[in-house]
Structure formats: structure tokens, C-alpha cells
Amino acid sequence: MTASERDKMAAGEWYCCLDPELDALRMKARAAVHQHNTLAPAERGNIAPALLSLFADAAADAFIEAPFHCAYGMNISLGSRVYLNAGCTILDTARVRIGNASMLGPGVQIYCSEHHKDPALRRGGLEIAGPVEIGADVWIGGGAIILSGVTIGDRAIIGAGAIVTRDVAENTTVVGNPARDVSRRT
User: Fold this and answer.
1) Is 186 part of any domain?
2) Global model pTM greater than 0.85
3) What is the average per-residue pLDDT within 81-98?
4) Which of 27, 31, 43, 119 has the highest CB neighbour number within 10 Å of its CB?
5) Structural domain for 123, as ranges
6) pLDDT grade, residue 171 (50/70/90)?
7) How many domains is the chain built from?
8) Whether 115 is catalytic
9) Is pLDDT of 145 > 60?
10) Dihedral of the CA atoms 161, 102, 7, 71 (nearest 10)?
11) Catalytic: which of 34, 36, 69, 115?
12) Domain with 72 in it: what CATH number?
């Protein structure tokens, strides 16, 4: 039995993102994102109902400002008191876990997928996804980009505009492109 493209994506294997099942899942996410982004704040609550129903898990007190975008929603888990400011994008082709009390500034982007380097395979929709893990009490400054396969430790700080290409240890501050450690060691 051949694995579906969705199964391959979930297993961290190369898969075709142009698959009809994945298209349908992305369409469902677009509708939920649209509801979240267009409902009045009093009706939307912390997270619009359709969007919340997509997530793998979200604490009742997690909060997402509008506008927001995600690819699937089904791979996103948000801990207690997580806050996503306006304009955040999570391309959740793999698991994205954001720990308790972590805060993402405006325009933060999390990209789980990587497209194939071979142009012909890339045109055919071949990509691979790696999970992103963000610990507890993490602050990610506005406009930062977190790439596929990155783990950010508890209490880390990611400077505004940083591009995080590798793991960040707990209690570490990183800035720049690519992000580099600027923590003071005592």
C-alpha cells in the first residue's frame, strides 16, 4: 500500500504539495482563517471557532490577533497564555508547538516546509517539512522568521527581524540574519 501525500508530509518525508487531499485541507484552513480575520473581535473571541476547531490543541486563554494565516491549522498546538500579534503566519506542514506564556510579535513567520532544490522537482510540488518547537516564556520580536526543524528553548528571546535557521538554547538571545547568539554570559 502506497502512503498518501498527507501521510508522507506527517512522516517528514518528501511529498507533493499539489495533492488533492492537501488542497482540500488548505481550503478548509483558508475558510477558518477568513472567519477569524473578518469576525468582529467580540464575536471572534480569542480564536474564531472555525480556526480553533482546526488546531491540534489550543489552551482556552491562547490569543491570536487578526489578521492571521496558517496553511493547515491541524499541526498547531498553543499553550496557555500564548499570544500571537497581528500578521503572524504559520505554514504548518509539520507540527508547530508554542509553549506556555510565549509571545510572538507582529508579522512573525514560521515556515515548516522546504521546497526541493532541483527546479524540475520543485515545479512538481515536491517539498519536505520539519517541526518547529517553541518553548515556554519565549519572546519572538516582530518580523522574525523561524525556519523548518528549529527548536527554541524556554525563555529565549528572538530579536525583531531575526531569521532563525538553527536551534536556540534556553535563556539565549539571538538577533540578525542568520540569527546569532548575543546573550551576555556571566
Assistant:
1) no
2) yes
3) 98
4) 31
5) 5-181
6) very high
7) 1
8) yes
9) yes
10) -50
11) 115
12) 2.160.10.10
